[in-house]
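Blinded run. Sample ID left blank on purpose so nobody reads anything into the name before looking at the predicted structure. Input follows.
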Amino acid sequence: MNPNTQRLHDLGQSLWLDNISRDMLTNGTLARYITDLSVTGLTSNPTIFEKAIGSGNSYDEAIGELTRQGEAGEDLFFALALQDLRQAADLFRPTHDATGGVDGWVSLEVSPLLADDSAKTIRAAARLHAAGARQNLFIKIPGTPAGIPAIEESIFAGVPINVTLLFSREHYVAAAEAYLRGIERRIAAGLDPKIESVASLFVSRWDVAVKEQISPQYHNRLGIAIAMRTYKAYRDLLASARWQKLARAGAHPQRLLWGSTGTKDPAAPDTIYIEALAAPDTINTMPENTLQAFADHGKVGAVMPVDGGDAEAVLEQFRREGVDDDALAERLQREGAAAFVKSWRALLSRIGEKSSQLAR
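Blinded prediction complete.
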């Protein structure tokens, strides 16, 4: 077991891989990450699958077979993705069982085209989770204004949800309250309150967005400050009377997940976000190169303070630099949703091309 990744695991943080491909499933790479690097789950998104399916020919046989069965478009993609995610879920099932369902998860996102449609998102989440046929499969729903009611309804319906595209404390709180409402409704209806969920805060995109407008001394500090502020809100919620009541009824916390933790600035340390975001009762999902870098030379120093540390002071410095963090959070969420739509369309186009070629 790698000592660097094991230290994060020992302090109570789960390490998840922000990637999946058929190759890493068939060549044993994911299995090695589980045994050697303490990886206990993974996440996927349209961009990840676009790269996986567009690279090489490892999906060609499956695409050809599904095409012959009459699958096309989104249905063909979800069939492919679920083949991968079922296999990954089975690898993580021992962790899932050992942690009572808290860890050992894989994630599949609903179509990004549904980001502004609550009703269709609710139906898609239920359909995909049922089709996945794995109890450790999260369905990802974006924390957009239309996504929030879909999260509540999905939790109430018993669908485990990974809330994605959160960029601020306010985004996180809205997602957390949707989760709480869903659990409270289940308790009122006499249903099992143990429906798992995570809330994914994207970190590094903050620093990319402001790099050109701030002084160099502030580079790569904004995303961490936003994360620290959000972590305080998370710990405050877990200490609240409202949550304690649900916990006594048997509910599990919606864990906070750090996403977008790969370093985008070549001048910054490649493990900067992993080291800064070390915190108990959280998840860090990281790209493969970041996971490997941390395993090689990462360090675990101070644990993130539960009171937010100097986050508010740092954010005030950014405001003096002209950064409106509230407005930027909304912009980043819109841009993130648009980027997934772009990847989605490119993904479906690539699958369509391969399907046509293989049919010929």
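Unblinding after everyone has recorded impressions. The chain has 16 helices and eight strands.
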